[in-house]
Amino acid sequence: MTTIDPTLLLSNKQTTKSTGNSSLGKDEFLKILMTQLQNQDPLNPMEDKEFIAQMAQFSSLEQMTNMATMLEKYLYFQLQTGGDNLLQYSEMIGKHIEWKKSDDEVGEGIVKSIKRNDTGIILELDNGDEISSSYVTKVSESD
Fold it and tell me: Is domain 86-140 given the CATH code 2.30.30 in the classification?
């Protein structure tokens, strides 16, 4: 009777686990799909339903990747412009605004200019007041 070499037992082997990127990108997904197609049994090929489902998954993955890329670009643009776009608020120049900081502090005036500081967009009024754009409650044409 032959004996089994105890060094070959799995319990004696040291197992190492590699921790890499756990998310699959579209390139990895396509490689897996192509490998699966190349190595399928020619007598029992993948059914059409399975193939269509996998192609739909690939298409969804590609669209999500594209969307994530566009969101990154959008966020980068927003950070570059300070979050609030100065040009957007420039349309308020010459407009009559009403603002409210608290129940006790309300006011109105005509926007003379717009500037940006560390806290956001500041509206400079014709009466000398400077109001944060977040306090504006109404914008209308000036008389």
Answer: yes
